[in-house]
Specification:
Order of helices and strands: EEHEEEEEEEEEEEEE
Distance between the termini: 120 Å
Largest sheet: 7 strands, mixed
Helix content: 10-25%
Oligomer: single chain
Number of helices: 1
Number of strands: 15
Length: about 260
């Protein structure tokens, strides 16, 4: 405390003790220092927590990104698997190789590579027959169709390994690989698979050109079909049938038309 002289109301002088302001006291500054230390410690702790939180956030974000990346990779792999599966459903005719052969007997897998072919007479006409396949071939093939004897100008078929192909009376016969398959409603002579060459459904099948046998591998269809009816042979001009996926339709007719019912 400090002393101060003041003049009273009676005109006399008095000495009084005066208290120091609180901010001039030693304990006040110690208190301030302590408060400052506490505040500084709190700020440092907050920065550390924020840093940890930020690090945690970055880590979490990184994990999230990794999860998203993994999810994306899974989707791509799934898509890749799906694409591969879809590709496997398509006919791979890469093994088929074009070849031209004279009259004689040939083995698929040796002189003719397995695959799907369009068979045509390049020179001459005669019989084309097969043995050992799931659907045998038995046609008269020539450069031009001939309705009088059921001769056709081409025949489409899938030749499998081990089949025996016999060419009788035809000087030169070409085997041309089929490129791609799609649904058709106009069909030449050949073997056609429902679900690959023909869309499954109910159809009225009509002879457009020529005449011959129309059969299915399940036995549901067995008709002689032509452009005119013939009671003596049982030939009809059309037949209506349900065609099921996987069914093989064999036509020895130059051209037929399928009309959805």
């Amino acid at each position: 405390m400090s002393k101060k002289i003041i003049t009273g109301d009676d005109g006399k002088k008095y000495t009084v003790k005066e208290k120091k302001p609180f901010y001039k006291k030693w304990w006040f500054w110690i208190f301030i220092v302590i408060i400052a230390i506490i505040i500084f410690a709190g700020i440092s702790s907050g920065s550390s927590d924020d840093s940890a939180s930020s690090s945690s956030s970055v880590s979490s974000h990184s994990i999230s990104n990794n999860n998203e990346s993994n999810s994306s990779n899974t989707v791509e792999q799934s898509s890749s698997i799906t694409d591969t599966s879809s590709s496997n459903n398509k006919d791979d005719n890469s093994s088929a190789k074009a070849v031209t052969l004279g009259a004689g007997t040939y083995t698929v897998g040796e002189q003719i590579q397995p695959g799907r072919y369009i068979i045509k007479a390049v020179s001459g006409s005669g019989n084309v027959t097969s043995e050992g396949g799931s659907n045998d071939i038995n046609i008269i093939l020539g450069q031009q169709p001939d309705n009088s004897d059921g001769q056709v100008s081409s025949y489409t078929a899938t030749l499998t390994k081990g089949m025996s192909i016999k060419l009788d009376g035809i000087n030169q016969t070409s085997f041309t690989p089929v490129v791609g398959r799609k649904y058709l409603t106009q069909l030449s002579a050949g073997q056609w698979v429902v679900g690959k060459d023909i869309k499954p459904g109910r159809y009225k099948i009509t002879a457009v050109s020529g005449s011959g046998n129309l059969t299915s591998d399940d036995g549901d269809i067995n008709e002689i079909l032509g452009t005119t009816a013939d009671q003596d042979t049982g030939q009809v001009t059309n037949v209506t049938e349900n065609l099921h996926k996987g069914e093989v339709i064999t036509s020895d007719i130059q051209e037929i038309n399928l009309s959805a019912e």
